[in-house]
Amino acid sequence: MDLSESAAEQQFRAECRSWLEAHVPRPALPSGDTRAGFAAHLEWERTLFDARYAVVSWPREYGGREASLWEWLIFEEEYYAAGAPQRVTQNGIFLLAPTIFEFGTQEQKDYVLPKMAAGEHTWCQGWSEPNAGSDLAGIQSRATRDEAGGGWRLSGQKTWTTRGAFCTHLFGLFRSDPEAERHRGLTYFLVALDQPGITVRPVERLDGDEGFAEVFFDDVFVPDADVLGEPNEGWAVAMATTGSERGLTLRSPGRFMATARRLIELARTRTDELDETRRDRLVSAWIDAEAYRWQTFWTVTRAAQGMKSGAESSMVKVFWSELDIELHELALDLLGRHAELLDGDDAAWMKGYEFALAGPIYAGTNEIQRNVIAERVLGLPRK
Amino acid sequence: MDLSESAAEQQFRAECRSWLEAHVPRPALPSGDTRAGFAAHLEWERTLFDARYAVVSWPREYGGREASLWEWLIFEEEYYAAGAPQRVTQNGIFLLAPTIFEFGTQEQKDYVLPKMAAGEHTWCQGWSEPNAGSDLAGIQSRATRDEAGGGWRLSGQKTWTTRGAFCTHLFGLFRSDPEAERHRGLTYFLVALDQPGITVRPVERLDGDEGFAEVFFDDVFVPDADVLGEPNEGWAVAMATTGSERGLTLRSPGRFMATARRLIELARTRTDELDETRRDRLVSAWIDAEAYRWQTFWTVTRAAQGMKSGAESSMVKVFWSELDIELHELALDLLGRHAELLDGDDAAWMKGYEFALAGPIYAGTNEIQRNVIAERVLGLPRK
Amino acid sequence: MHFAFTDEQLALRDATRDLLTKECTPAHVRDAWTNAAGRVPGLWEQLDAMGVVGLLAPEATGGLGLDFVDLVLVLEETGRHAVPEPIVETAAYGAPLVGRAGVTIAASEWYVPWADSADVIFTAAGRFERAGVTLVPHPSVDGARRLFEVQGTATAVDGDGVLAAYDRGVCGIAAQQCGLADRMLQLTADYVRERRQFGVPVGSFQAVKHHLANARIALEFARPLVYRAAASIAAEHPDTSVHVSMAKSKADAAALQTARVALQCHGAIGYTTEYDLHLYLKRSWALARSWGDAAFHRGRVSRAIL
Amino acid sequence: MHFAFTDEQLALRDATRDLLTKECTPAHVRDAWTNAAGRVPGLWEQLDAMGVVGLLAPEATGGLGLDFVDLVLVLEETGRHAVPEPIVETAAYGAPLVGRAGVTIAASEWYVPWADSADVIFTAAGRFERAGVTLVPHPSVDGARRLFEVQGTATAVDGDGVLAAYDRGVCGIAAQQCGLADRMLQLTADYVRERRQFGVPVGSFQAVKHHLANARIALEFARPLVYRAAASIAAEHPDTSVHVSMAKSKADAAALQTARVALQCHGAIGYTTEYDLHLYLKRSWALARSWGDAAFHRGRVSRAIL
To answer: N or C, where is chain D less crowded by C-beta within 10 Å?
Structure first.
């Protein structure tokens, strides 16, 4: 056990820090979940890409630096500590890319990954449907075979598609074999959104941004080349993605350490509201952020030793989503009568709170996660 | 709405207070869940009975004073405020008696109630069985018809019978029609425990007292006269009892107000351990005790107006059982390193904590209660 | 001891509920987010005509001269319907303070909702006449609460009168929180009965049942404290402030807990502004930190019992 | 950065677990409740023979001269088996303080468990030799923890040495709490898999699943803090005390939460002393309020970050 950073890691951290200090946009960009903000964020993504900071852990040929998991964690810590913008490309980079690396053809890798890293193509997720939320296997959108065209024709509706109104591409599951049992007969498609037959309707989120979209498909053609993995094997392919969504890659400890640090700064300015009870909550939240960090290091060490993590990712998802809410709730309590204001710098806490409230819902509700923990970690009976 | 006490109520309160001040045993009696303590408690029950304080709300002919629900609540407040002993007769008085009043024959009332009030007969509850806990309808103990004897013969096992090792009588459910569906075919029996065929095995509880018992029945004869309600109608009869166990009668607000007051006294002597966080928890617990009191007054007013309360009793049960634990947990936190000691006056808090931990389990687990609230109060679907 | 409302009081509640069910629908509340006044056109006049706005004001001034027990259920209804009007500020807080009906009053320690449509404004600084002040607007997370900082010269107000008024206002907000919690519970229970996943109604899952049962319990034990505080106000009980603070702390907790589980049990649809839930969520967030939050009010109780 | 144990460290843990599984069964712990010594006859000698008792002591004195990272998993096992021996006090706290192996040490701020079988006793007052003291016994809710007040003349101990020793003791208790939590979880998971009500295993109910899942999560995030604190102790990290306090506060919380849900998910049978659960419940209650409770340790963290 050696909890110190190697010289190389320290140097990488120093590089990241000084580059970020020099380049992080000031003042902060507008929300990336609005049309204007999204455009501004893409510029930032381009800046990251040009400096090879967009996808540090990727192979060099796709724009990365082949950084280790440790270096990636270091980058994330520095990124959020520097108050750098949210990554509007994250659903592509953190959810689709791992799946492409695992299941994609060489052509798919060569075509999709560089453009994704550069922010040239932006990817949104097409999982949920009006009748398939927690119950992902309830997907009804259809993919019918088009032998003549050498591909498939998609029809149906996807919903709760984050940033769907601004993205250029969508990845998602469609039912390609209506006869097959729920989890079977699904195929994973990569779809450009600028095609005839696709209608995108922005949907306003709790925080007032048009961060959601409904995407309607009316007989949209997709060539076989844009099927990820085997036809009718989409479920297994998708599970790899939802795994990473819940687990390590989507929520690195750096995010919560940075939020906790900002919270402590806020507390120092709100001494009237900082009674002992809130001080104690603040300490507990800080300890939880530390616990999240060290549990991650524990997991990463195991991963570096080649051990696969399974249902642990469900524990991780429940923990960070509740921690994120507690951090923001505490901030609102400290802000007191100012908490409801949408103007002024502190308004970011209310927006952050609204965003945090989505945590226990998306990527598999925390209720589903607790079932998974009980059944797969503790071995309790499903029925 | 008039929240003041009438002159008569004030006078009754004054009477109770002065009588209790004069008679409550000092020092406190040993635990009533031990053989020696039980005997000492029966003396106290006798003292209560002689002064007509054993069953204030009962008709005079059975030893009561026909007190109103309000007067009963006043008596309870004064009783616990005076630090008077737990009622070892309570399962008879609060669980069986209401059922006798509702379903009993005149003979049963005349025979059972006065002796119960006087503590001459002490009653324990025979619901649970090894395979019938939360699932009460899973009862397997059998009652077979004995036409010749004009009664029934009981065989089987009851368990978790509180104070079963010290009581003279048991009331409980036995399966009289093995063919009938779960909730049907059960009969409610009143059984004297000093008969051939009955074996009582004391079982030690978490707190070290032999407060539980297993009761074994081997072909025990019970005459028809000791069936409460109609044969095979035992479920409906029993539900009336479990209703009162969960609801108002078992846990009057006076108990928790008294505990909360003692907790505040403790806090005043433990200023080192009384940080702001615990002060805040203490205030919250106090407010909860007040909330419990006023919710009870609300319910009692409705009852006085002749409205029946239904699934509300499930909300009451969850609330008081969690409040009781929080009150005691807070006391243990204030006691710090002294909390684990079983000697000294403060040891009562640990014993009280262990007792409180049973609250969310017995009388229908809080999980079952929450199902009932969701289904009967909020109208959510059972399946 | 009689802890219940009279038939007249229940009738007034029902009349208010009927009016608001028709005249303050979610569509009306949404309109208040965007329209010029930030209120529901005509609603105030209807409430006034019913007498609830001036319920506590002397009859001689056009009020009903009734007491707070008569008012508390009405205010609970205004919470249930997220009424975007200064009803607590006027009916509960201000009318007795200015001693007459027919005056629209806005009040808050600092950020004053609906100050732009009030005749008289009270803040920590004192009393302002609308005519003489400059209002600096601030947007609230609840679009139906237009907030304003008030600039101008205040006239001092009698301290006891203001404390009593403050307690009435706090109790009124607590009543609104109960109404909001009840509405969010109802909305959620209705949704999870209908919404199906895994081939069954979402409401049949024990986790959903227990979330909602816990919220329902919180409401069950908050409400009596609010009604008791109302009675203490009406009876000028010496411990009124303590009773009011108990009520606000429990009502806030019930509303916030309900808001949290309501959103969780709805899932993504509750997270869109096209769905109505957010109108009630955001009101409960705002009210929980207005008129003193739960921690502040537990502090008032603490000083009384410790 | 490498946050994992070596094969040797895991092997030592496994050897300890195997020993305790055979020699410190629930029956052995029950015996310690009632036997004269209040300990498990022969167990101490076996632990000593394995080297774990003197693990931190210099090799020259018969110790293994290893560090706290080597010890922490062993202590977690002693928690898992509710070992009724002064292992934390001797192996973690005392051995390095007295500078040699072969000394049985008891230690506590005030009420000292197993003081009657120790050679050396440390309290807030300082160091006592067993020979020179009078011991006033006190019963603990955990019958396998005989407590004693120590009367006699203490000799002062070097402050830095004691602080470091205290941190080692706290981290040792935190490790035991993790072991206890794990044991209670296991016991409960096994029970609810078998126990049937309403025709299905109790463990198939979502409420039971979620109770246990939440407890499992608490353990998942407490353990790494304990191992990290152990590493800080071994590396003499300047913030060791803060890391140790984080570990104790989270480990206590995990153990207490697990104790609560373990009892609830068992129902009545868990409430009897005939069943084994209470042996672990009561140990976790006692340890949570020994060596500083979670609130005390959050206070130490608070001073460091605020």
So the answer is: C
